[in-house]
Design a protein that fits this description.
Order of helices and strands: EHHEHEEHEHHEHEHEEHHHEHEH
CATH superfamily: Luciferase-like domain
Number of domains: 1
Structural class: alpha/beta
Strand content: 5-15%
CATH class: Alpha Beta
Low-confidence stretches: none
Number of strands: 11
């Protein structure tokens, strides 16, 4: 994509994806501790979502303010939460303060989340296209950010992936397999950035791991967007019942040892990913931090 302004930097190869549930009601002092911990472990990026918790743009700015080098990405900023001018200018405001350290991931969200905001969910592809075009046309009277903030779309299906290459810098797919990454790369072409999320459970007992995995997936299996994505990825309707089949859980969530998780991440890179956002499925931030410490030696490159 060409937007007529300076190019954005490439992302670090490995990032951390942290769910709303993991951050939960943790006071910001605890969140700041977590940011310092993952930065000390050597991770280069943190992804944060937007639902009905902390507002994602101000949250991103706060996280950047308490870290020295982390890149912060929104995964995703809900387009129904702010108009295109506010989204574009908010991203430029953060990029001006923290050059090269903010990635704007945006997405269409889900019908229940949008209805919860008192809005009407409609035509995802058409709505996203119009929104992106309006962002490009947004008036900005502030200083020119150099480099400009990277823009990614939380894309899952072929049409949204194609739009990610056309009107954004690439895609940030969520709950996908390496096979999806391979197909996404074919659709995006060689130049667009591809940054999938990969869920991980460090648990050697597959029965325990699958129970945790089903608890993690339960929320998403109620969302039409994800059900459709799973079916496009080759799963059957029967795989989506009762919290997900063993096949679904094993394919979407890498469980076992740190080496098992690293192998799954490696598969995404082999399939064409530029960056993988690792989400540890855990009970709280302390448990997440311990798992990330265990993963760091096998996930992160040598200094």
């Amino acid at each position: 994509m060409s937007r007529g302004d300076p190019p954005v930097p490439r992302l670090p190869r490995i990032g951390v994806w942290c769910s709303t549930q993991t951050f939960g009601t943790m006071p910001f002092s605890g969140v700041a501790w977590f940011v310092g911990r993952i930065e000390a472990l050597g991770y280069g990026m943190l992804w944060i979502p937007e639902s009905f918790g902390r507002e994602v743009m101000s949250h991103a700015a706060l996280l950047l303010s308490c870290s020295d080098r982390l890149v912060i990405g929104t995964g995703i900023a809900n387009i129904w939460a702010r108009d295109p001018v506010a989204m574009e200018n908010g991203a430029k405001t953060i990029a001006d303060a923290y050059p090269g350290r903010f990635v704007l991931g945006i997405g269409i969200s889900h019908l229940p989340n949008v209805a919860g905001r008192g809005q009407q969910y409609r035509r995802p592809l058409e709505t996203t296209r119009r929104y992106l075009e309006a962002m490009d046309e947004a008036r900005w009277d502030g200083p020119l950010a150099a480099p400009r903030p990277m823009r990614l779309i939380g894309a899952l299906g072929p049409a949204m992936l194609a739009l990610s290459a056309e009107l954004a810098d690439g895609a940030h797919p969520y709950l996908v397999t390496p096979d999806h990454t391979r197909r996404a790369r074919e659709i995006l072409g060689p130049d667009a950035l591809l940054a999938p999320e990969q869920s991980v459970i460090l648990e050697a007992d597959p029965t325990i791991a699958r129970t945790s995995g089903r608890h993690h997936l339960e929320h998403y299996l109620d969302r039409v967007n994800y059900r459709s994505s799973f079916l496009r990825q080759g799963f059957e309707e029967s795989d989506l019942e009762h919290g997900g089949s063993d096949r679904l859980v094993d394919s979407i969530i890498a469980h076992g040892t740190a080496e098992d998780a690293s192998d799954r991440v490696r598969q995404h890179f082999q399939a064409g990913a530029d960056h993988v956002a690792v989400q540890v499925v855990a009970g709280d931030l302390a448990e997440t931090a311990r798992a990330l410490a265990e993963l760091a030696p096998v996930l992160l490159p040598e200094p």
